[in-house]
Write a structure and sequence with these properties.
The strands form three sheets. Strands 1, 2, 7, 8, 9, 10, 13 and 14 form an eight-stranded mixed β-sheet that branches. By secondary structure, the chain is of the alpha+beta class. The protein is globular and about 50 Å long. It contains three helices and 14 strands. The protein has one domain. A hairpin with a 2-residue loop joins β4 and β5.
Length: 210
């Protein structure tokens, strides 16, 4: 029996909606885009410059263009594939910064965090000559949104160092644009991320039990 083909859903920004775009970035154990950040301490080097552990800095991808992310709709009991285009990611990044949301952060989409700031935000524009390459992300495509985050929160920095949290996940509001004809509907991306995290957790639990 062949594998069931899932519907593909493009996530877009509707600026006529009451709320739209990325409002915060969450520190999570299972990032939906499956890309971990890198963090630097006193024993790590970058561009011949030794970074002090006191800097407590994270660098990672926030959104990757056309990256297929599984989503499960509990009400409809149906699984979908969602993705962002390069243009939508660029729009989301610009809105995030212009709205001064760079101090908005949470832990696992539940707990608001203090002392967390996005100090750099950029879109990869060149395959070779992009600073993301220096951080070890050379394989990620043009159009990927990266951030550099300062962690002035000791509890969260300990979670970073212990591996309890591994990556970034967005919080915001987007509109569904089903590739296979349907009426677009709006939903909260926090709910999507929670469902994705649950799916990944169940997968890891099943794998560990085998």
């Amino acid at each position: 029996m062949g594998k069931k083909k899932l519907k593909k859903v493009e996530l877009i920004i509707d600026e006529e909606a009451d709320r739209f775009g990325v409002e915060a970035i969450s520190l999570v154990e299972f990032p939906a885009i499956e890309e971990n950040w890198v963090f630097f301490n006193k024993d790590q080097f970058l561009s011949l410059a030794k970074l002090d552990e006191e800097q407590k800095t994270l660098v990672g991808a926030v959104l990757i263009p056309n990256k297929e992310i599984p989503r499960y709709d509990q009400q409809e009991e149906e699984e979908f594939i969602v993705f962002f285009t390069e243009n939508t990611i660029k729009q989301a990044q610009e809105l995030f910064m212009s709205s001064l949301n760079n101090n908005n952060a949470t832990f696992e989409h539940k707990v608001p965090l203090e002392g967390i700031t996005v100090i750099e935000s950029w879109i990869k524009e060149d395959k070779r000559n992009d600073k993301s390459t220096a951080f070890g992300f050379s394989k990620l495509p043009v159009g990927t949104w990266f951030v550099k985050m300062k962690i002035n929160n000791n509890d969260m920095w300990e979670k970073v160092k212990s591996g309890e949290v591994k990556g970034f996940s967005i919080e915001g509001y987007f509109t569904d644009k089903l590739i296979e004809a349907s009426i677009p509907k709006r939903y909260n991306s926090i709910e999507i991320c929670n469902m994705i995290r649950d799916i990944i957790s169940e997968h890891n639990s099943a794998k560990n039990n085998n």
